[in-house]
Specification:
Layout (H helix, E strand, L loop, with lengths): L12 H15 L11 H8 L3 H13 L3 E4 L3 E4 L15 H4 L1 E2 L12 H9 L19 H13 L9 E4 L2 H12 L5 E5 L4 H9 L3 E5 L1 E2 L2 E2 L1 H10 L4 E4 L13 H14 L2 E5 L3 H4 L20 E6 L11 E4 L5 H11 L5 H13 L1 H23 L13 E5 L5 H11 L2 E2 L1 E2 L13 E5 L6 H14 L5
Parallel strand pairs: 3-14, 5-6, 5-9, 9-10, 10-11
Antiparallel strand pairs: 1-2, 4-12, 7-8, 11-12, 13-16, 15-16
Helix pairs in contact: 1-3, 1-16, 2-3, 6-13, 7-8, 7-12, 9-10, 14-16
Length: 459
Amino acid sequence: MWIPDLEMFSGPRYIAIADALSLDIGRGTLTPGDRLPPQRELAWALKVNFGTVTRAYELAAERGLVRGEIGRGTFVRNNPPSRRTPWPKEDRETDRIDMRSDFPCNLARDPAFKKGFRQLPTHPDFSGMFQYQPGTARQDDLDAAATWTSRLGMPARPEEVIITNGALHAGFLALMAVTRPGDTVLTETLTSPAIRSIAAMLHLRLTPVVSDGCGIDPDDLAAKLEAGPAAALYLVPDFQNPTAAILPPDRRRRVADIIDRTGICLVEDDVFGGLSRDLDIPSPHTGPISALVPERSFYVTSFSKIIAPGLRIGYLVAPETLREKALTGLRISSWMASPPMAALVSGWIRDGNAERLLSLQAAELENRTRIAAAVLAAHRPGTHPRCPHVWLPLSRPTREQTVVEELSCRGIDVTPGEYFGVRPGSHPAGLRLCLGQIDDLGTLYHACRAIAETIPPVI
């Protein structure tokens, strides 16, 4: 009888059982046509409730892993997603494994989504949500926003928060407020292509600060500022994109000291902060740098990377001296964020669903990063538990495109390091592998095995 080992899986037990089933199908422990144990027997063996196993089997069926036959039982499907090997096929476009998009795991099945939308019409100001907001946002949404940023380690009053259409919009407003055409903006050696696009639109010069597996080097940051003026420092200190680096506490304090001493403005992109930090153990030393120098910082966070990409709501905590400029940018770019969407998120913050969904996301990602780290161990991947992406270093930059093409031929799409380089040809060689969009762990296991076979280990 199949009895899964649930020790390696985080999160609710019913999800762990479904994930273990997916992984064992991918490994070949379970094969098409295999009959799963009766639900009561498995519940007894695992010491869980009958309902837990029922929910697990239902989730596995939704994922396309199993089929139920009345009177006969539950069986592994003939072609479950976990058995789709990453090799060229006639239907390769539908069978491709996409590891390019840095999205969170799909939580849309959670009842909070339907419940949240059903409750919106009962809101006392439901009709007002569909009107222009005189102050760009409703007060109860600003209250909820301040509560959320404070939970992330960035204390703020409601009047200090600007609600935006996601984190990218917030970063755009921050750079609009603090720079002028021709200004220099410092950032990590590798950074989001979206920031390069914003810099190009605003006619800004991006200059990379030396970075390593722990983030930017404060000594090089100080040297860059001594060599010439810069208007802003754009950083992702937690789960840096694409390297997955987390800036250590001592570097955070040193960066804050440099900001305080030089007067440069920080734009801190904390879109992954809810995943990287334990919200139940707040600490100023591992929290946002912005909390150490709030008068010189724009703090950016959102829900698109930690709960669902369609939640286009971001929060921008702006310094008092630049807040009006940022608000002007909001008015000319979109006037306001969508009030109904802001109200949905605010409701989740108030009733606890935001933190619950965040915990579910963290558990899903812990399972994925554990598999990726184990299968790719010989390649020394840059990753952390709960991080939705993995950085896989390569020995030579010239290998990047070759490896990308080889993996593409095997049905796996990844992103090369050159995509993130601030300056062409000077970036560290590597690949970014995104874990959130792969629906089942068996497929992830197959993909990581194929990647490990394609790329020589790092020596």
